[in-house]
Amino acid sequence: MTIDFKDHGKKPYIVNIEDATVQNDNYRTTIWTGGQLQTTLMSIKPNDDIGLEVHHGIDQFIRIEEGQGLCQMGPTEDNLNFKQSVSDDEAVFVPADMWHNIKNTGTKPLKLYTIYAGPDHVEGTVHPTHEDAENDPNEQ
Q1: What digits encode the pLDDT tens for the residues 34-92?
Q2: pLDDT tens, 64-76?
Q3: What would you measure as the largest C-alpha separation in the chain, in angstroms?
Q4: Which of 22, 73, 138, 140 is the most buried (most CB within 10 A)?
Q5: CA-to-CA distance for 44 and 76, rounded, in angstroms?
Q6: Domains of the chain (ranges plus CATH)?
Q7: Its domain of life (predicted)?
């Protein structure tokens, strides 16, 4: 499948996210930017990283599709007290205002996608059916 590596935001878009992530050879490619959500693909070379950063008021989801790395997070850029290895098929959840970085510790590119967002649902929401969601007063 051929992927059109451009930002398709603010209009409907469907893509095989795994294929797009694996095929992306750019460090960062934004594929969708909306008013409340953005998705980017990343390809991190061996011994490189995503760069130590913090997103004020924005939670982040990172999915590793290929490769291995070291994820570090903490309350300040000088106190990255959370460290864990990450690899294929693992997800990293970065709370808003949390400093974080992922370094490629492998010998091939680290392929990942990331979603930046503010929450849309009440924390802990579970809707077994579509009808339950439509009848939830918190979803109005």
Answers
A1: 888 888 899 999 999 999 999 899 999 999 999 999 999 999 999 999 999 999 999 99
A2: 999 999 999 999 9
A3: 50
A4: 73
A5: 23
A6: 17-119 (2.60.120.10)
A7: Bacteria
